[in-house]
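--- STAGE predict ---
source: upstream dedup step, 1 unique chain passed
mode: sequence only
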Amino acid sequence: MTDEELEPTCFSLITSAGTAKSLYVQAMQAASEGDFEAAEAHIKEGDKTLVEGHAPHTKMIQREAAGERTPVSILLVHAEDQMASTETFKVMAQQAIALYRRIFALEAQLGKDESSC
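--- STAGE serialize ---
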């Protein structure tokens, strides 16, 4: 992979990761308001965006495995970091949504509304 090919690939990875991460944040925000349908929709959209980002990443790995060296740059390291941290962020968002579900269910059992917290 040449430097000319690498730069747009890195920006594609960074863009996909950033968009997915934003969608995961929106999912947590929706869950914090009790809108679990919207939360799940944001998670699914984030997953779709992240998968789109994995396509050029996978191609790059396949080319490397076939013997074509990839020049390492700070941009590539940043792109890799963004992809990895977004995967972690997704797991955290899913856990936060699960916790909000429990909180809302417990509040419903106790007969509390959000204003009494």
